[in-house]
Amino acid sequence: MLDPKTLKYQQSHEWLSPDGVVGISDHAQKEITDVVFVELPKVGRQVKRGEACCVVESVKAAFDIYAPLSGEIAAVNPDAAKDPAVVNREPYGKGWLFKIAPSSPSESSALMDAAAYEKFLASEAAHGSH
Amino acid sequence: MSTSVVPRRTALFESHRRLSGRIVDFHGWELPVQYESILREHEAVRARCGLFDVSHMGQVFVSGPGALGLLQKVNANDVGRLKPGQALYSHMPNERGGVVDDVIVSRLDKDRYLVVVNAATTDKDFAWLQKQSRGFDVELDNASDHYGMIAVQGPRAAEVLALIAPSAASLPRFGAVELSVFGQPSIITRTGYTGEDGVEFIVPNEIIVRLWEDLLAQGRSLGAQPCGLGARDVLRLEAGYLLYGQDLDDDHSTYEANYGWVVKLDKGDFIGKAALAKQKQEGVKRRLTGVKLMERGVPRPGAPVIVSGREAGKLCSATFSPSLQAGIGVGYLDQPALAAGTPCAVVLHGREVPAQIVKVPFYASPNLKKGA
Fold it and tell me: Are residues B162 and B91 in the same domain?
């Protein structure tokens, strides 16, 4: 399992590891609740930063997953397709979604570090409707 | 429909909040879509017992010497076969054979009936009943604000019932009994909308929090847990039950909904009979049809269904079925005679996912005897 403190994050709740692995945060898996289906991108697909390239679905709704960097899909996690609940159980481990080979690695400077993401979650909660 | 009005809360709203229920707007009511997990709540109902706040549903009492006459006039099903203490599921048709609402009618006494109606249609139904009641010696009472309702559903529901209301424990399926709960006149029916055995408590709002807490406390040892609308929707779709406003409305008939068993053309005259008799004779042009995905995926309402290379209709209810571990849905398809097993496809995220026409219900509980 990866240490969430070492990861970078997007406001749409994806995390990115230093070697290009992408998943969703613990906060996101709790919001989505029971994941029952994951549609992974095809290996070799070229994606742009911010492009919807993967779908995570719960009983109630479908959630687009946005590429945190531009590049090529280098690998996908077959376990997430076979046993989608792994995304809930281990969002930072066996529940990873895909790996990206970045074409412009400098794009990652636009992402939040763990501390900034925590702050972002806190401000979202404060401004949320609940 | 518009739900821009201030959302309403059931008497159990604070209880749901204390249980960390995730509150959503459902047809103008603030209700929990889930507490913990739709999958776990679904599993609780299929394997043990779930408790649902269904207080948003409406209760209309029809009393007097003309009660049966009025109810026969407005229902497609034969209310005349109910003995006191019995209930049935029915559709209230309009003149065109469309459906004003789907309801449960309980005969409480010789000339006293309870009609449980859908939340979003309560006012419409009451107005409809009032309009149709002219010339009948009846009294109509919309008691929806007075009563709350808790559904206790699952194979262990009868055991939970025995702990709370021992005198109602022997109530048969589709039985209805008036009794006192915490000293308040209440009604228990052996009904539900999950495809499992179960009972529904219809009690005055002032005691419903006490009843809910008692059900939670006493039911815990039997594995009972609170369940939200999310699990309820999955359970009812697996069981092939209709959701009014989504699967059924004023423009779709009981025959089109594939619920022909509800229509009793031989019972005498009723609203919509001529239109329904004509449909039965001529056959319907579209029919609510079950579809199951053959690949993993989650169909959603609105997804097009492709049969023989062309769109035959759209899904009106669809979900992932935990019992079948497959995507399921129902939609009005313009080929009304499709056989189970016919290959088709459902369009999801722009892709045609292989699927198959299947018989509804999708899931028949082994805990519930056929026809019960």
Answer: no
Q: Give the CATH number, domain containing residue B23.
A: 3.30.1360.120
What DSSP element (H or E) covers B132?
helix B122-132
Q: Please indicate if any CB of chain A lies within 8 Å of the CB of B34.
A: yes
Considering Cα of B163, then B165, then B168, then B171, what sign does the dihedral take?
Answer: negative
Alpha-carbon gap: B342 to the closest alpha carbon of chain A (Å): 24
Give B328's contacts (C-beta < 8 A, 6+ positions apart): B237, B238, B290, B291, B292, B293, B299, B318, B319, B320, B321, B358, B362
Same domain, B27 and B170: yes
**Single pTM value for the model:** 0.94
Of A60, A62, A81, the CB nearest to B38: A60
The whole-angstrom separation of Cα B208 and Cα B230 is 22
**What digits encode the pLDDT tens for the residues B90-148?**
999 999 999 999 999 999 999 999 999 999 999 999 999 999 999 999 999 999 999 99
Size of interface A-B (CB pairs under 8 A): 39
pLDDT in tens, B242-280: 999 999 999 999 999 999 999 999 999 999 999 999 999
